[in-house]
Amino acid sequence: MRIAAAGDVVSPDAVLDRLRHRYPGLVQTTTWGERTLLYNPGAASSHGVYFVTVKERDSASDAASALDARGAYRVSFAVAPERYRALFGHLPPRVNASDADVDPLAVDRLMPHPLYAWMSWASVVNPSPGTLEELWPLLDESYALVQSAHDQRRAG
Q: How many domains are there within the chain?
């Protein structure tokens, strides 16, 4: 059962295409069953820096969003810890879920990542076109973070 009409949800392929078009230096790979965009311009390093993941199915360690049962997908990305606190409050401790008051089944709403909130990751299940537009400033910040992390790794 789909959780939203197809016209109300930006497809995972469209999200990935828009990200690759907007941000240079991205490499797509599949990691842990997710399509992942890594920042690694010119394949300058053996591994890039995680920028965005698109998860389209549940896994043994990450089924909180019930993606399989709902025919959904989740877009996830890191934000600076300060931005995370401004958006969601405190960073949760390292556990396999974010704060109990966050509903991992929520759709088309920016929320802490159900597993990686402690690392200041945010996510959206089935973003609509309007929500995707609202995410661009956060994604711009995230892109700057990964560029900086990549530069630091390359420097030593």
A: 1
